[in-house]
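G., before I forget:
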Amino acid sequence: MCGIVGYTGDQQAAPILLAGLEKLEYRGYDSAGLAVRDGERVPEVVKAKGRLRALAEKTDNGRAMRGNCGIGHTRWATHGEPSENNAHPHCTDDRSVVAVHNGIIENYQEIREKLIKNGYTFYSDTDTEVAVKLIDHYYKKYNEGPLDAMARAMMRIRGTYALAVMFKDYPEEIFVARQDNPMIIGVGEGESFIASDVPPLLPYTRKVYYIGNQELGRLHKGEVTFYNIDQEEIQKELVTIEWDAEAAEKGGYEHFMIKEIHEQPRAVRDTLNSVIRDGHIDLTEAGLSDDVIRSLKRIYIVACGSAYHAGVAAQYVIEDLARIPVRVELASEFRYRNPILEENSLVIIISQSGETADSLAALRLAKSQGVPTMAIVNVVGSTIAREADHIFYTLAGPEIAVATTKAYSTQLVAGYLLGVQFAHVRGTITEEKYEELLAALQELPDQIAKLLEDDKERIQWFAAKYANAKDVFFIGRGIDYAVSMEGSLKLKEISYIHSEAYAAGELKHGTISLIEDGILVVSILTQEALYEKMISNMVEVKCRGAYLMGLTTAGNYNIEDTVDFAVYIPKTDEHFTPSLAVVPLQLLGYYVSVSKGLDVDKPRNLAKSVTVE
Ligand code: F6R
C-alpha cells in the first residue's frame, strides 16, 4: 500500500525523501511524487507515473528540487487510475496546502460535493485531493491555524488516513494526523522525519514516536509536539528502534526474498529464544498466566493470507497437543459474519505488519465483545500490537519482500510454542513429551539452515524446468495441507502461475477433472499416519498424467517409486514439519519467478501491508 515520507531539517530534503521512498518500495505502488519547499517559498511539486526511477530521473535524484522541508509518497491506486495526475502530493491551486495521504476516505464524494458548492474545483479522481481541499476550506474559513483546520477535517472525514501536510504560511513545518494507517515520526539532531515504516528512518535515527489514532503532530526541525483531536497537547513516549540498518538492506543478495529465506534460521532461533528460558516456555511477557491457559474453552485464530496459513498449521498443533478446540478464520470473513464468541475464549490475531485492515477490524470486534485477544505480530509498536490485550512478538526483523517467508516461519513457531505450552499447562502431554518437543523445536534453526544448503541448487534446476507451467496443484493431508496452501500462494503470487492447494482427499470431489498430461502436482507427505493415503491420492493423479514432485521426510525413500522428483526434509516431530517443508516450496516460488525474469520482491498488484479492506 502507499508509502509516506517527510523531512524537515538542515539537509536538502529531496534526496532524503527519495531514499526513504526507495525503502518503502516493497509496499507496492504505481506512481510517486515529492513536494519540497525552500524557506518561505511555496512548495515545488514533482510527480511521475511508474517506478521511483522515473521520479528520480525527473528531479536529477532530488538535486533539482531545492529546499530543507518536504513530503513524499508512493501511491497504490485506490481512487482513480495510476497516473501522474492522481499521484500525490495533492495541493490547492495556490499551493497553500500540500499533502500526502495513505488510506481511504469513505465519504469523499459527499465532501467533494460540499466543496464544489463552496467554489472548489478538482483536477484528480482521488479522495486525497478532497481531503486537502477540505483542510484548506477550514483553514481559510476559521483562520485558526493548521491544527484547527486538520482537527475539523478529521471530524468530518470517515475512513482511514495517515496524512502529512505542509501549509504555505508555516515554513519548515509539517503537520500530521492519523487514523488506522501506519505512521512513525523520527527525531534526530535538528531534524525530524516521517515514514510509514521503520526502514526509511534507520539511516538517520532510531528515536521514534508512534502517533496514535485521532492524534495530530506538529514537526519542526528536531522537535515534535503531539495533540489530541481537541488540540490539547499530549505527551508521547520516545521509543528506540532495535532493528539494525543492515537488516533492511539486501546485503549482497539479488533480492530481498532470497535474503529473507536465508534469514529464517536466525529468525526462528530468535523467536524461540525469546520465550524458552531454562528449558521451559515462559509466556509471562505475553501476559498469559497458567490460570488463563487452563480456563480456555476455545481459541479463534484470525488472520489474512500467509498469516492465515500459519494459523491453519497452529490449529492442528494446538488441537492435537492441548486438546483445545480451535477455529481458524479469514479476517475479512470473521469481521462481517457476526461471530458467536464463547466465554473463556481467546482470539489470536496473526499479522506480520500489525497493520492489516481486516485483521485489525477482527481484533476490535473481539475486544468489543469482551473476549481476550492476543496478537502474534512482527512489527513493534504497530496498531494491532498496541491494541491487543496480549502480545507475542515474532522476531523476524524487517521483512521487505512482499511475499512473506521469514515472518511466516516465525508465525509458525509462535503457534507451536503456544500449542506446546498450552498442552504442558493443561496436562495433556507428559513432562517427557514436553522436553522432547522443546528439544525438537530448538533443532529447527539448524535443520532449516541445512535444508537451504542442500536443496537450493536442485530446486533451482527444477524451477527452471517448470517455469512455463500454466497450472500447478499442491496437495497434502493434515498439517501438510496447511503447508500446501502456503506453497501454492508463494508460487502464484510471485510467478503468476495459477496454482491451487487441495486437501489431497478432496481432489476426487471435482478437481481431479483438471488433471491432464504433464500438469505439475506438488505432494507434501510428512505425516506417517497419512503417508499411504497420500501415496494413493498421488497415484490417482499420476495415472491421469500428472508430473509428481514429492516432499517427504528423510527415510521415506520408497517415494521414488511413485514420484518424478523427490525432495527430503530432515526428521523432526511431526507437529513441526511445516517449518521444514515450506523451505523448498519458498525456493520453488522464488526460482520460478527469477527464471521468468519477474519482479520477485514487488509482484504486480500486490502490497506488503494491506491497510485497506
Ligand atoms: C503473502 C503475504 C500476505 C500476508 C497477508 C497478511 O506472501 O505476505 O498474504 O501474509 O497480507 O499480512 P500481515 O501478516 O501483515 O497481516
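The chain has three domains: 3-248, 251-429, 451-603. The first strand starts at residue 3 and ends at 8.

More on Monday.
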